[in-house]
């Protein structure tokens, strides 16, 4: 089955295979070198055993030669000696010859039994030739030393000279043995030099090739795995940091690229899910805000209905009185003087003026309620906050349930902020009605609007029941309420908090504890002067 070299798995298999081949080749080269070194050591050790034997052989030849030369220097005929002296000389010659023969036999046995693998050391033909010639010369000397030879010879000194000549040959032969070894070692060194140079060259070539393969594999590993993994990790960090628009771009076609594509797909799915959830949250938030706003409108409508009853009653009473007077004017009594008639006409005008005044009052109340209940859009424009807050106070202040509370309004007419007026009205209504609901009869709610450090600041301060630490901790959470009347959904302050956040503002609640009142502070960005000029010019 063919490997797909685009995958990391196949690349790893290939890399392991190449490394295995490199290791095997280098191991084979190293093992071959070690084996050759072992073989060389073994051969040298085997041939080195011959050196002591050759030295021993040379030593015995020297002893025999010295003994013969001693006899020659004395110039004494062996036949002139007594029998005791003769026996001593002959036995000395025999003893030395036996020692020499024994040394030669040991050297021969070593040559025959010494197994050498290297052919450059295994050639023993010259040594065996030396042994044969040495044995012949030794046999001739032994023959000369035999007693019969000495007793039958008429010229013993002539035979002594022959013995000396044979000993000279033996000495010459034994002197050649180290030369044989030296020449062979020199030749071996020359041959070995060429061989080990070849092996060194091969080792260097294999090492360079192995290093090149390792560098190639390392580069492939870096480009194929490490760099893509770095890109993958960097992309994951971007996504984890909230940059969901970031996409991992990999040029490879392996498992890392597959993982990168999976992460990109996961990010796409996450963005789609997030967008869908955000859309649902926005829809639900709008619905909740609309519901809360309608609840606020209903709350206001209940108070407004009571407020409208008074002007409507006045209108009805004035209309009834006008109807009665109108009958008298249309059918005048002949006895009525002009002054009385003019007085009735003035009263009718007063009734009409009162009806008109009370009608406009009803219109103003209903217009404020309609203006507050109008949903509008979410567009934010530079708005005078003092006017917005004042309009809310005008709606709340006449409500019967709050008539026994005091509302103080202190605003700076120059404070403008880029806001959605309807949403800020709802924020103000929630805070003001909460403050009014937390104070007892005769309590006071102070509302101020001012600018501080390039921000518009609205404060709603009351001297009511105050806030505990637990209430402050959960105050802006949805469905959390601690109203004394047990009413409310617990969404008012949560929606207020969300509206302020949407306006890049901040809302805080402060209280020293129960019974100490509370302070709600809203901070919104101010409108710069150029934007205000443009806005009002338009």
Report on this model:
- It is an enzyme of class 2 (transferase).
- GO terms for molecular function: ATP binding; phosphorelay sensor kinase activity.
- It is a single chain.
- By secondary structure, the protein is α+β, with helices and mostly antiparallel strands.
- It folds into 3 domains: 31-190, Four Helix Bundle (Hemerythrin (Met), subunit A), CATH 1.20.120; 270-375, Helix Hairpins, CATH 1.10.287; 378-538, Heat Shock Protein 90, CATH 3.30.565.
- 71% of the residues lie in helices and 8% in strands.
- The chain has helices spanning 8-48, 50-74, 83-113, 119-122, 125-145, 147-152, 156-240, 255-330, 338-373, 385-396, 421-438, 469-474, 492-502, 529-537; strands at 381-384, 406-411, 416-419, 444-452, 455-462, 506-510, 518-525.
- A 5-stranded mixed β-sheet has the order 2-4-5-7-6.
- The protein is rod-shaped.
- It starts with 7 loop residues before the first helix and ends with a helix.
What key phrases describe this protein's structure?
five-stranded mixed β-sheet; 538 residues; 7 strands; Heat Shock Protein 90; 3 domains; two-stranded antiparallel sheet; Helix Hairpins; histidine kinase; Four Helix Bundle (Hemerythrin (Met), subunit A); alpha+beta; rod-shaped
- What is the helix/strand order? HHHHHHHHHEHEEHEEHHEEH
**Helix content estimate:** over 70%
SS field, number of helical segments: 14
Main sheet specs = 5 strands, mixed
CATH superfamily of the largest domain: Histidine kinase-like ATPase, C-terminal domain
CATH architecture classification name of the largest domain = 2-Layer Sandwich
Residue runs with pLDDT of under 50 for 5 or more positions: 75-87, 147-154, 529-538
Please give the CATH class of the largest domain: Alpha Beta
Q: How many E-type strands?
A: 7
How does the overall form come out from the CA principal axes? rod-shaped
How many domains? The number is 3
- Structural class designation: alpha+beta
Mean pLDDT: 74
Task: Classify the beta-strand content into a percent band.
Answer: 5-15%
Radius of gyration: 65 Å
CATH fold title of the largest domain: Heat Shock Protein 90
N-to-C span: 78 Å
Taking strands numbered 1, 2, ... along the chain, how are they ordered across the largest sheet? Answer: 2-4-5-7-6
Oligomer: single chain
GO molecular function, one term: ATP binding
Protein name: histidine kinase
Main location: membrane
EC number: 2.7.13.3
């Amino acid at each position: 089955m063919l490997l797909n070299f685009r995958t990391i798995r196949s690349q790893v298999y290939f890399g392991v295979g190449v490394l295995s081949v490199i290791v095997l080749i280098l191991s084979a080269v190293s093992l071959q070198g070690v084996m050759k070194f072992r073989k060389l050591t073994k051969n040298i050790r085997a041939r080195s055993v011959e050196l002591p034997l050759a030295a021993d052989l040379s030593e015995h030849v020297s002893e025999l030669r010295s003994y013969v030369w001693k006899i020659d220097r004395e110039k004494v005929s062996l036949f002139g000696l007594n029998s005791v002296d003769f026996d001593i000389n002959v036995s000395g010659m025999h003893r030395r010859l036996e020692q020499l023969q024994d040394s030669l036999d040991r050297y021969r046995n070593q040559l025959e039994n010494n197994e050498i693998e290297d052919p450059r050391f295994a050639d023993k033909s010259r040594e065996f030739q030396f042994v044969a010639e040495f044995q012949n010369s030794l046999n001739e000397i032994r023959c000369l030393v035999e007693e019969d030879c000495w007793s039958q010879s008429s010229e013993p000194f002539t035979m002594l000279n022959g013995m000396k000549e044979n000993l000279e040959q033996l000495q010459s032969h034994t002197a050649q043995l180290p030369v044989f070894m030296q020449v062979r070692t020199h030749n071996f060194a020359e041959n070995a030099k060429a061989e080990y140079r070849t092996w060194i060259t091969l080792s260097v070539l294999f090492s360079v090739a192995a290093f090149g393969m390792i560098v190639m594999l390392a580069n492939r590993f870096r480009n194929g795995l490490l760099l893509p993994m770095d890109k993958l990790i960097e992309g994951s960090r971007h996504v984890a940091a909230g940059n969901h628009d970031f996409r991992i771009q990999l040029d490879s076609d392996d498992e890392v690229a597959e993982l990168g594509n999976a992460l990109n797909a996961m990010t796409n799915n996450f963005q789609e899910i997030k967008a869908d959830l955000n859309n649902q949250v926005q829809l639900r938030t709008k619905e909740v805000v609309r519901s809360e706003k309608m609840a606020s409108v209903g709350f206001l409508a209940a108070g407004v209905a009571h407020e409208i009853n008074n002007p409507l009653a006045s209108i009805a009473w004035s209309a009834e009185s006008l109807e009665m007077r109108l009958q008298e004017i249309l059918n005048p009594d002949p006895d009525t003087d002009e002054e009385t008639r003019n007085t009735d006409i003035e009263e009718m005008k007063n009734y009409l003026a009162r009806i008109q005044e009370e009608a406009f009052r009803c219109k103003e109340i209903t217009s404020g309620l309609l203006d507050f209940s109008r949903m509008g859009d979410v567009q934010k424009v530079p708005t005078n906050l003092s006017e917005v807050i004042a309009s809310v106070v005008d709606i709340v202040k006449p409500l019967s349930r709050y008539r026994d509370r005091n509302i103080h309004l202190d605003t700076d007419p120059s404070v403008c902020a880029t806001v959605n007026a309807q949403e800020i009205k709802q924020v103000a209504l929630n805070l003001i009605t909460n403050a009014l609901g937390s104070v007892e009869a005769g309590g006071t709610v102070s509302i101020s609007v001012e600018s501080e450090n390039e921000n518009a600041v609205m404060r709603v301060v009351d001297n009511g029941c105050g806030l505990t630490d637990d209430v402050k901790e959960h105050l802006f959470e949805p469905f959390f309420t601690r109203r004394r009347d047990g009413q409310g959904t617990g969404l008012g302050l949560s929606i207020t908090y969300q509206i302020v956040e949407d306006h890049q503002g901040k809302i805080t609640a402060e209280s020293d504890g129960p019974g100490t009142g509370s302070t709600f502070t809203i901070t919104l960005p101010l409108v710069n002067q150029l934007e205000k000029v443009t806005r009002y010019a338009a």
